[in-house]
Write a structure and sequence with these properties.
The chain contains eleven helices and twelve strands. The chain is an alpha/beta fold and 318 residues long. The structure holds nicotinamide-adenine-dinucleotide.
Length: 318
């Protein structure tokens, strides 16, 4: 029986990915290793967590001894745990470096110690920084502009060192903004739904004209599954979306779904010290092996908004 080990599996992306992997690898044992921060919940795995194939370990990435112990006999490791919210990273730089950089190094050391044969590291489009026109491909340079994206870029540099020094079999994934249910309302789309459902103002940075491409979480899971089958070790894959929105447009979609006038509920606040204008990925490489995104925000807004209505009290603040 395969053992698949997923860090951050109680978070937004990690929980969808854990369910997806559980459905696809029907005979595998799935270990979720997660500190379960304010952004996560074991409830995210309610559909599967009682199955004997699933084991949830509530531990920190920085507890190396337990990481090494629980990763023994792992066949595939997917590293999705991270501090993930840019706004928090301005004041909590230590936490971001500790989890995203040192935590990733611990994951790599555990993989090395246990001779794990396939490691998928989830990174972000933000490591490339902003781009006004066209898109970044996998060879483009790093230009991170905030402590979150620099911690993710630093983690990738450590991985690069481990690939060269220890021949560690890692595949790096760089993804666009991902949307779906279970994401903490600190992020744009869930925050829009959550505030509107509570009839509270939602704050947008600057003029709300920054552009982001949005990738549906199920499309993302399909891409990871394909990479597990056909991806080449020690390669990088951009997983992008062609569905691009201004931040204000995302809020408008949520307001329309809630039949509210967006003007009444939006509050513009001073922009971040530096706010990337636009992120964009060229994802021809993964297209060539048979993947493309299919779902845009408008297709799922009803489902997502309804989920937040039902789970409005699930989230606590950091
Ligand atoms: N959400 C996006 O749009 C997006 C886009 C591209 C890449 N990513 C990357 O995808 C991954 C998952 O992001 P997400 O949006 O699901 O974030 P999230 O904040 O919802 O989940 C992160 C998970 O990591 C866990 N975690 C945090 N610190 C930990 C620690 N020290 N030890 C163990 N577990 C810890 C949390 O408890 C949580 O379950 C991250 O690596 C993020 O950088 C996210």
């Amino acid at each position: 029986m395969h053992k698949i080990f997923i860090t951050g599996g109680c978070g937004f992306i990690g929980s969808h990915l854990t369910e997806y992997i559980y459905r696809k690898y029907k005979k595998s044992q799935i270990f979720v290793y997660d500190k379960i921060t304010y952004a996560a919940s074991v409830k995210n795995l309610d559909k599967i967590r009682k199955d004997r194939r699933v084991k949830i370990i509530k531990k920190d990435l920085n507890n190396y001894k337990s990481l090494e112990k629980f990763t023994k006999n792992t066949d595939i490791l997917i590293h999705a745990a991270a501090e993930s919210h840019v706004d928090n990273s301005f004041n909590l730089t230590n936490e971001f470096i500790t989890t995203n950089v040192l935590g990733t190094k611990n994951v790599l050391d555990a993989c090395k110690a246990n001779n794990i044969k396939k490691i998928i590291h989830i990174s972000t489009d933000e490591i490339y920084g902003e781009i006004h026109k066209s898109s970044f491909n996998e060879q483009s340079n790093f230009n991170p502009s905030n402590p979150y994206s620099s911690s993710k870029a630093a983690a990738e540099m450590i991985i690069n060192g481990y690939i060269h020094s220890y021949k560690l079999p890692v595949i790096i994934i760089r993804a666009n903004n991902i949307f779906g249910t279970r994401q903490h309302p600190e992020k744009l789309l869930p925050g829009s739904c959550w505030s509107l459902l509570k009839k509270k103002h939602f704050t947008l940075h600057g003029n709300g004209m920054q552009k982001r491409s949005f990738l549906y979480v199920e499309d993302f899971c399909k891409a990871i599954y394909l990479i597990l089958q056909k991806g080449k070790l020690n390669e990088i894959y951009n997983i992008g979306s062609k569905f691009e929105y201004k931040n204000i447009d995302v809020f408008k979609i949520a307001a329309k779904e809630n039949k509210l006038n967006f003007r009444k509920y939006v509050k513009y606040v001073k922009d971040r010290p530096f706010n990337d204008y636009r992120y964009s990925l060229n994802f021809n490489k993964i297209k060539k092996i048979g993947w493309k995104p299919t779902t845009k925000i408008e297709d799922k807004i009803f489902e997502i908004n309804s989920w937040y209505k039902k789970n409005i009290n699930r989230f606590k603040k950091r």
